[in-house]
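Try it yourself: sequence plus succinic acid, in.
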Amino acid sequence: MSASSMQVRSDLLREQNFIGGVWRNAREDAWLEVVDPASGKGIARVPDSGAADARDATRAASEALPAWRATTARYRAQLLKQWHVRIVASTEDLAKIISLEQGKPLGEARGEVAYGASYVEWFAEEAVRAYGDIIPAVVAGRRMMVVKEPLGVVAAITPWNFPLAMLARKAAPALAAGCTVVAKPAEDTPLTALALARLAEEAGLPAGTMNVVTASRANAAGTVAAWLADSRVRKITFTGSTAVGKELARGSADTLKKLSLELGGNAPFIVFEDADIKAAVEGLMRAKFRNGGQTCVSPNRVYVHDAVYKEFARQLVARVAALRVGPANLPGSEIGPMINFRAVEKIERHVRDAVARGATLLTGGQPVQNEIAAGPNYYAPTVLGEATHSMALASEETFGPVVALFRFRSEEEVVRHANDTPYGLAAYFYSRDVSRICRVAERLETGIVGINEGAFASEAAPFGGIKESGYGREGSRYGLDEFLATKYLCQGGLA
Ligand code: SIN
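Structure, out:
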């Protein structure tokens, strides 16, 4: 299916950059083909932008900045609310666009729209709460005040796995704070970002406050380099791999930008011997198979206590083997295609390596291609037993529908293994022992811990990691602060 043959509002299907309130082609008039991951076929084309387009976007954003930062928080909140209303009203259209270019089942794509919209609503509400402080003066005749000011132009670089939610959770707090935004969506999923920009335009966000440029994998680095080098861009907010996060940190060192980096995960999921096994299986299903395992908080290493290993594996395999693999628009599909063939190759490499090193294949373990799942990028939901730390999947994120079960025998041992990774985004554990819950939650070295819960993400909670999973928090009241500078005003001569 091509994007234009989809039954969606035609003005949401944009094939141009949005810069300074104008829809336009890349300066070089170059194009990037957007591909349906289910069929591998082209569905639309968008500009393949370069550094000159990125600079145009920066110019538009910095010209819009003085007027935007001078508006009241209440005014910005009202516009964000308008944006929110339009996103929610366009759920069906946006979900179809997400599914078409990203591949997740339509039901999940609707969920993503609601999830992304919740950040816009949340930050509309938070905009009016960017409070400062009055500090009791340390010297008579002085007033010591703290105010929060917008950082300036923000570059948002967003991933393909949640093309709407990740842009919403970066752009909404930036705009709420009084910053203006230049955004580059991932090359696999630009259409959703452009649709979101169209809705921002319709909501009345002033020209230049929200700009989107699209670029291919080959041109992405050059486009982003123009932002890294530009001192008008004061902040980079990025979700993606740790390798790229480090490049952004290095690349922005000369202009010392503030960074928020939401990077790789390699999350551990621990099932203790005192866990409610059925609840743990359900929690793992939710956490692992959301978006076909393509999320940065997907459990990558599942540790199960020896005493409950057999029963947990039995219940899990029954649930995983029943998952339905198919295209996003087929009712009942639970696992769509992976984003591209590179993703499938990585999954195959991990499974082959694990089996060669002694893992037992409990279900799945190969690509799927049949009359329903008819493209090159489907992979069977898979469970591997008896995984060990010598396997590639113990240290690299698989980013696919593969569960690897590791056996453990003591709390001390499993916490050590869980933390034995450079990453620290999310961890999960299931236990009914109250003292263990407090102990393990404290000892896990991650930014997020799911305790007897597989689905923790929420606009009201801080999302982000420690160690090489990055820094900065998205969502919650902490999320607004990432886009604000703290200014201290010291007024003397008042005695
Ligand atoms: C991500 O995978 O980058 C984000 C997932 C989430 O928000 O839950």
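One thing you can check immediately is this: Residues 159, 161-162, 239, 262, 295-297, 457, 463 surround succinic acid (CB under 6 Å).
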